[in-house]
């Protein structure tokens, strides 16, 4: 889970393979990047909004 899109971009660069994106509800403002590194599937999650706080992190967690 990343608070900033820049950190999510950094995390996704290190991963090997991209999975197709998930369908997303319009009310869900999270961005999900599905990737793989060796045999491990990874989900990188971040918010599109410009406001970052503990509430933002809780919002991500509740929509997983």
Task: Provide tags for this entry.
2 helices; alpha+beta; 64 residues; 28% strand; 3-stranded antiparallel β-sheet
SSE order and pairing:
Layout: H1 5-13, E1 17-18, E2 30-37, E3 40-47, H2 54-62
Antiparallel strand pairs: 1-2, 2-3
Could you characterize what this model shows?
One of its GO terms (molecular function) is catalytic activity. The chain crosses the membrane at residues 42-61. InterPro entries: Nucleoside_phosphorylase_sf. By secondary structure, the chain is of the alpha+beta class. The protein has one domain. The chain is 28% helix and 28% strand. The chain has helices spanning 5-13, 54-62; strands at residues 17-18, 30-37, 40-47. It has a 3-stranded antiparallel beta sheet, with helices on one face. A hairpin with a 2-residue loop joins strand 2 (30-37) and strand 3. The longest helix has 9 residues, at 5-13. It is globular, with a radius of gyration of 12 Å. The protein starts with a helix and ends with a helix. The model has no long low-confidence stretch (mean pLDDT 76).
């Amino acid at each position: 889970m990343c608070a900033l899109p820049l950190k999510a971009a950094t995390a996704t660069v290190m991963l090997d393979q991209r999975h197709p994106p998930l369908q997303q509800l319009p009310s869900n403002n999270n961005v999900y990047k599905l990737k793989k590194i060796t045999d491990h599937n990874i989900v990188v999650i971040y918010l599109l909004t410009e406001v970052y706080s503990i509430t933002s992190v809780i919002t991500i967690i509740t929509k997983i």
